[in-house]
Design goal:
Keywords (chain B): Cell membrane, Membrane, Transmembrane, Transmembrane helix
Number of domains of chain B: 1
Number of helices of chain B: 14
Largest sheet of chain B: 2 strands, antiparallel
Largest interface: A-B, 37 and 29 residues
Shape of chain A: globular
Order of helices and strands of chain B: HHHHHHHEEHHHHHHH
Structural class of chain A: alpha/beta
CATH class of chain B: Mainly Alpha
Low-confidence stretches of chain A: none
Strand content of chain B: under 5%
Strand order of the largest sheet of chain A: 6-9-10-3-11-12
Radius of gyration of chain B: 20 Å
CATH topology of chain B: ABC transporter involved in vitamin B12 uptake, BtuC
Mean pLDDT of chain B: 86
Number of strands of chain A: 22
Structural class of chain B: mainly alpha
Membrane topology (chain B): Multi-pass membrane protein
Mean pLDDT of chain A: 84
Helix content of chain A: 25-40%
Oligomer: heterodimer
CATH topology of the largest domain in chain A: Rossmann fold
Number of helices of chain A: 18
Largest sheet of chain A: 6 strands, mixed
Helix content of chain B: over 70%
Shape of chain B: globular
Strand order of the largest sheet of chain B: 1-2
CATH architecture of chain B: Orthogonal Bundle
Organism (chain B): Celeribacter baekdonensis
CATH architecture of the largest domain in chain A: 3-Layer(aba) Sandwich
Distance between the termini of chain A: 33 Å
CATH superfamily of the largest domain in chain A: P-loop containing nucleotide triphosphate hydrolases
Number of strands of chain B: 2
Main location (chain B): membrane
InterPro entries (chain B): ABC_transp_permease (IPR001851)
Strand content of chain A: 25-35%
Chain lengths: ~500, ~325
């Protein structure tokens, strides 16, 4: 069965002055699986949003088959046969599998007053077995299923809408290897039915297994398209990155003294046997995709979570069993990736947020007051160039970049020896991001060791002395000094 | 009627409108005060003014503890029962230790009070452990505690007030020093203590941080459960002290006192702008709330309101305060 073609002509979306997608012209042949790849911010999500009807293009045309379409709502897209499965699952956890599949169109009986449970469960069962998911019971509550199974239910739900085009937005990012297999089997079945599938993924290694073509976006523009059999890793990375000027990466001399040593750290199901050393004054980057266990590793080191096995040695002292407060006293600091929910008290003043972590060390005999804290607040505002008219204004009044600097400043006020930074560049404008990396770099030359976690691998390339790659919970590669470059890091993390 | 937020939380730039917004409850109190002064017969006499202060002393004291507790993100609904049980424990202990002597010694009375306060500490600690180890919300555990403690109070007295106190005991509740009722001094002491804690101690800042964003506080190395437990204990102890004052006022350990006091205490906090979502509020704000309640009740009595109508007015007032509280938080 040959499926329906998709054509895009000059598809463009502007958000204010930002061109999220610019003049995208391409055709996807019917009945095939087309991989769509690109770095963060390359325009993939914008593309998905336009094709799924979540947002309207600024200009350009979309054609499904021979027909030009204009989706104003996701409903319209669905009626035209374009169904999207989003990265975040949209199932109702407390309802059964069958209810979720037929949500909003449950079969009725007795003149539409009652739900026809028998019919509902039978039809859901049929759909599940048609798709090869024999092991999922339609009566089961969705919340009892693993994330992988939930993803399967989500796709079965999508397939029950008889799609002509199916958009899958990073369906494997949260799945284990065995679950990925089941998902691929499902995708192949849909393909055999003639559904045209657009498959968005960060995992380059799985593409040859499932995709027929691979298309790349770069900085909001079409960067090339290849049939899968002609696309090796080099070709794919070239499409994603283009010709990158080699980064001027200053190679510094780091101390030889090992400040932190991790030996065989494990934390089910995220980490298995992770070992590394951190030297004094070194900036160590940890690269890895979402779900690779990066945040869990930092939480474990900081004492916010427990490791199942392994040992942590800081400056010759075993700190494996020490509490978070004790580790903080020893000089560990942690800036969370989620500053709104775990880093700042947004309603409280900038002043208060800059002295939360060092509160006890600033206080004299448990007593503290604004005047006593002011020098610490002023120092960080000055050193970190935090743009603030009055430190007594709430932290929520600051821009993302300045909020992030407050999080960093709060911890620098504790005079840490090791600074753990989780996604310090997330939601921060470019200039502020560079300033933050500059600060980390400056502190490093004064002897502060840092561990930086980021999905923005260019950022790691910019600020790290050494980068280790975390993949499925294990360290799979290491790059030192001049070896560090963004393309290599991408190749290693996406393998 | 807004959060009279101090520099501890955040300060807006000084604008006229902003000043009004932050001190609106105080302005309402002042306007209301003037109104009552002009219309209420006998309102402005010194005795009546002191009487207002004396009436609000116990609920006010507990409200200061409750303010810290609500700011840290918890609540205690059992304070009314704690007042009753504390009065009964004190009276029972005095009776027990003096073997029913006619004029028990000072030491015996002090021991009686200490055991009531000790009991309050244990209960506060217990609620803290329940919250931390088992994850029972204090809204639930203190509701259970409200019933339990009321029962304990009844068990102690067996329904009959225990009259065991020495003749000088009335001083705590009804005595005067420099013409000012003794409970007012206790209220002042409770105000000073909680005010200093909230504004000038590391603990106080931690209370705001934990209530404002518990995860951020935890990741800042703050012992959030210890902070919460301390607030639970402070509130519980203030309630126990309140019980001692009441036992002195009625000169006996009576298990039926202070029914529903928690309502008055919590409404004072809410009227004073303490956010029910935690992280925001001030001792000063609660003090204004307490005063407002006291003046209102006094005024309604002077105006000759039907006592049942007074209850309705009180209830509606709380509803209004909660409404404003929510509206401010959602802004």
């Amino acid at each position: 069965m040959t499926g329906i073609d998709l054509h895009f002509e000059g598809l463009t979306k502007h958000y204010g002055p930002v061109r999220a997608l610019d003049n995208f012209t391409h055709s996807f042949a019917g009945g095939q699986v087309h991989a769509l790849i690109g770095k963060n911010g390359s325009g993939k999500s914008t593309f998905v949003r336009m094709l799924s009807g979540a947002t309207a293009p600024t200009s350009g045309k979309i054609a499904v088959g021979a027909q030009d379409v204009e989706f104003r709502t996701p409903q319209e897209a669905m009626e035209a046969g374009v169904v999207t499965v989003y990265q975040e699952l949209s199932l109702v956890p407390g309802l059964s599998v069958a209810e979720n599949i037929f949500l909003g169109r449950l079969p009725r009986r007795a003149g539409g007053c009652l739900i026809d449970w028998t019919l509902l469960n039978r039809r859901a069962g049929e759909l599940l077995s048609e798709m090869g998911a024999f092991d999922i019971d339609p009566h089961q509550a969705v919340e009892t299923l693993s994330v992988g199974r939930q993803q399967v239910v989500e796709i079965v739900k999508a397939s029950s809408l008889s799609p002509k085009v199916l958009l899958l937005d990073e369906p494997t990012s949260a799945l284990a290897a065995s679950e990925v297999e089941q998902l691929f089997a499902l995708i192949r079945r849909l393909k055999a039915r003639g559904v045209t599938i657009i498959y968005i993924s960060h995992r380059l290694a799985e593409l040859p297994e499932i995709a027929d073509t691979v298309t790349a976006l770069r900085d909001g523009t079409f960067a090339g398209s290849l049939p899968m059999e002609k696309a090796g890793t080099t070709e794919i990375l070239d499409m994603m990155f283009g010709d990158m000027p080699p980064l001027e990466h200053a190679v510094r001399k780091v101390h030889d003294e090992v400040l932190l040593e991790a030996k065989g750290l494990s934390m089910a199901p995220w980490l298995t046997d992770v070992s590394f050393k951190l030297k004094k004054g070194e900036v160590l980057g940890i690269a890895g995709m979402l779900g690779a266990g990066r945040t869990e590793l930092l939480h474990g080191i900081f004492g916010a979570r427990k490791f199942d096995a392994g040992q942590l040695v800081m400056a010759g002292q075993d700190i494996t069993d020490k509490s978070l407060a004790e580790r903080k006293a020893l000089g560990l600091a942690y800036a969370s990736e989620d500053r709104k929910h775990a880093g700042l008290v947004l309603d409280h003043s900038i002043h208060a947020n800059l002295v939360t972590a060092p509160l006890r060390s600033i206080a004299r005999r448990g007593l503290t007051w604004v005047g006593l804290e002011r020098p610490h607040v002023a120092r960080q505002i000055g050193n970190l160039h935090i743009k603030v008219s009055d430190p007594m204004l709430p932290a929520s009044s600051l821009s993302g970049g300045n909020q992030q600097k407050v999080v960093v400043g709060n911890w620098l006020n504790t005079s840490p020896r090791i600074f753990l930074l989780d996604e310090p560049g997330r939601g921060v404008d470019v200039q502020a991001k560079h300033q933050i990396y500059q600060i980390i770099w400056e502190q490093a030359s004064r002897g502060l060791s840092s561990i930086v976690v980021s999905t923005e691998l260019e950022d790691l390339a910019e600020c790290c002395d050494r980068v280790i790659v975390l993949h499925d919970g294990s360290v799979t590669a290491e790059f030192v000094g001049s070896e560090i470059d963004a393309k290599r890091l991408y190749a290693a993390t996406m393998a | 009627m807004t959060n009279t937020s101090t520099t501890l939380t955040s300060r807006q730039p000084h604008h006229y409108a902003d000043f009004l917004r932050r001190h609106s409850m105080l302005l309402i109190l002042m306007a209301f005060y003037v109104l009552v002064a002009l219309t209420g017969r006998g309102f402005m006499t010194l005795d009546n003014q002191l009487n207002i202060l004396r009436t609000i002393a116990v609920p006010g004291m507990i409200a200061f503890g409750m303010t810290l507790l609500i700011i840290v993100g918890e609540i205690d609904l059992s304070v009314g029962s704690m007042v009753a049980v504390s009065a009964c424990i004190t009276a029972w202990m005095v009776k027990f230790l003096s073997s029913g002597a006619f004029e028990p010694s000072v030491i015996v009375v002090v021991l009686g009070m200490c055991s009531a306060i000790g009991f309050a500490i244990v209960v506060g600690q217990f609620n803290g452990i329940l919250r931390h180890r088992i994850g029972v919300p204090t809204f639930i555990s203190s509701l259970a505690m409200m019933a339990t403690l009321a029962g304990v109070a009844n068990l102690i007295t067996n329904g009959v007030p225990i009259e065991s106190f020495p003749s000088w005991y009335y001083v705590i509740g009804s005595g005067r020093l420099f013409h000012i009722p003794v409970p007012v001094y206790l209220l002042a002491a409770a105000f000073a203590t909680t005010f200093v804690i909230s504004k000038y101690t590391a603990l106080g800042r931690e209370i705001y941080a934990v209530g404002g964003n518990i995860e951020a506080a935890r990741l800042s190395g703050i012992n959030v459960w210890r902070t919460k437990t301390i607030c639970l204990i402070i509130t519980s102890v203030f309630a126990a002290i309140g019980g001692i004052v009441y036992s002195s006022l009625i000169n006996s350990g009576n298990s039926t006192i202070a029914r529903g006091l928690e309502l008055e205490v919590i409404s004072a906090c809410i009227i004073g702008g303490v956010s029910l979502f935690g992280g925001k509020g001030s001792i000063w704000g609660t003090f204004v709330g307490v005063l407002f309640l006291g003046v209102l009740l006094n005024a309604m009595t002077l105006w000759g309101f039907n006592p049942y109508a007074q209850q309705v007015v009180k209830g509606m007032l709380i509803l209004g305060a909660v409404f404003v509280n929510f509206a401010i938080d959602r802004r």
